[in-house]
Amino acid sequence: MNLLISIMVGVLFGASVFLMLGRELKGVCMGVFLLGHGANLAILGASGSPIGKLAPVLEHGVDLARYTDPLPQALILTAIVIGFAVQAFLLTLLVITWRRTQTLDLNKLALETEH
Amino acid sequence: MTPHQIIFFIIIPMAGGICTILAHRQRKLQRFLGIGFLLANIVTAAAGLCAVAPTGSILVSQMGNWPAPFGISLVLDTLSALMLMMSSIVCLAVFLYCVFQFDDDQQGGFFHPLFHLLILGVQWSFLTGDFFNLFVAFEIMLMASYAMFCVGTTTLQMKHAYKYVLLNLVGSILFVTCAGLLYGQLGTLNMADITRIAMSGQLPDSSVPVIAMLVLVFGGKTAIFPLWFWLPDTYHTLPGAIGGLFAGLLTKVGAYVMIRVFVMIFGSAESITSIVSPLLLGSAAVTMFLGVLGAVSMHSVRRILSIHIISQVGYMLMGIGLAIAAGIAFDSRVMAVAGAIFFIMHNMVVKCCLFLCGGLMHEHAGSDNLQAIGGLLKRAPWLAVLFMIAAMSLAGLPPLSGFFGKWVLLVAGLQSEHYVIVIIAVITSLFTLLSMLKIWSYGFWSPPQGDHVEHPTVRPRTFGGMAGITLLVVMALSMGFGAQHYYQLCETAAKSVVDPTAYVQAVLGEQHTPIKQLSLVETSLEP
Amino acid sequence: MRTLILQTAVRAIVPLSLVFAMFIYFKGHQLPGGGFVAGLVAAVALIVHRMSYGTQSLRRMLPCSERTMVAIGLTLALSTGIGALFVGLPFLTSTHGYIHLPTTTGTSYEFEWASVMIFDLGVFLVVTGVVVGMIDCLAKEVH
Asked: In chain B, which residues have pLDDT < 50?
């Protein structure tokens, strides 16, 4: 399970770097979103394998060692919420940029001068 | 101030944010509320400083009454209290400037709530006692700053906003990855708990690369040598006051966190300091020198000041690097950290003040290109005087505040026999003087040149701006003439950072057994 | 999306989803659920309503603007946190107790209340307000 997660993190990070190096602003933003998902997955991987363990909803009489560690999941939830806000902001910025300049190509944006 | 009351540092700006959202159509009410909340903030900061500074005691509040390494701890020690004091004063000065100088358009939208939420993020990151909350605080601060970047936005500003937003986002994502990996390796995110592990020498070798990655994260936020490129490109597009706020707070939060993390938490772990210290010292030397060279070559007030931020960050980095360098006596380490803290405080005030001056120069002359303006000495003599004091303080002429900060850092460098960086620091200081004189002689001294910029015929109203600048200059002067008192405070702060035993004890309590938590969770479920 | 089928379906979906949101909210004290998820469910219901009836109808449905909703939610969350300070406990310390409610069968039902519920209500309002406001704004941009 951990190996799978590690590979997935690598794939996500690699894909996001590829996207971020592109010339299209949409792709760059998508790359950042993917990087966020990779980071969340990395935290999940760092918390140990969840195979054979229970979700951390505690009940009486169950050995605590049988539950997964709830903290990384709480961290991921927080990170997802923050990522959600950031994504909404970036998308809005993209919309405004498109409306003003009619282009999302970084080379053309660089030539764009102030109105 | 009782320990639980340190939460007011978070409640006040948050309440400010809520009230200004509710009063979103009443501009006047928003302004009054803002000033009220910022004054309350200063009073709280002063109370906090009085409570911890004289004795070097540490106030700890565990959120929700959950015990230390498992819950969220807020910690107010002398270092945090000093930073909170300075940042709240800077915020008030900038706010005065914004309220009176900005037109309704620039203050419209969500400017006021964003301002308070930015302060919330800054103060939270000064107070927090664990890594994950540091991340959350950073994010709140950065979200507010992203949105403020787009207040009254021009296309140029928006173009540069992408660089700022995307780079900071990547930095934040790396930070949260580091936090997750650290938790996987150490089983805790509480700063005091990690300090305890580092002090007892139980830090696993596998955590070294993770912590080295933290240099990248905080270095990006602080704008140190290889990671600085976003800053000179973005800050100069901002209106003067917002630039001042960002310059005075955001990079300094990064420097503060570097002190916390690399000096206090990992300062006692040989395996980490042996890597981080040369990195930081080398980066410091390049940062301060190249930064100032960039500043000398620029021709616009805001651009000079923006690149200058980087050069000044070099000095702070120098203090941090010296403090964890190998084979340094305890006294020199304390001195280096105290110098860095003094320098951060000085820089918050002076840098922000210069940005505000730059904003007013723009209002008086209609441009901030040094080749187009001039003769401001006659048009605005008081502004000239205040600018001169702040600029000389930045350059480090005695008896102004910058001199003492640099002096302490240089002495610490000499004591620890790091001569190269000391020489570079002295040369940088000379160039700083040169770049400040450039603004002075082109902007204020020389007669107006070039007719391609039409000077505003009406004298701009600058009352609020001058009030803010005066407040900051008075602070800078007091830091110069009362340097001894300020330095003593910094020394108290530095001692508790270099030797964090008291911090660990204050946060974790006397005894600490990790197993306890498990049974505690169980008992909390008992009906 | 203003088709008759969706509009008819939404009349059933929206109230059901809001009730379901309330269920999740009350369940969230000891079991998975809580204000955050409930807020998301309620927000989705409102967005579906907006999709089929338009933004004007959504405005008439909401008691106040999303902005005010967020501010009220934050105030609720903050004030429950502050409450603990008055009894000398750290910020956000929670307390709980039991209420016995009569039922039709004659036995009493034990309901556990906790001060954290008010905090959760604040979270609910913030999440609903933010999500509805955000999607409403973006949707306006696109059209």
From this structure: 513-527
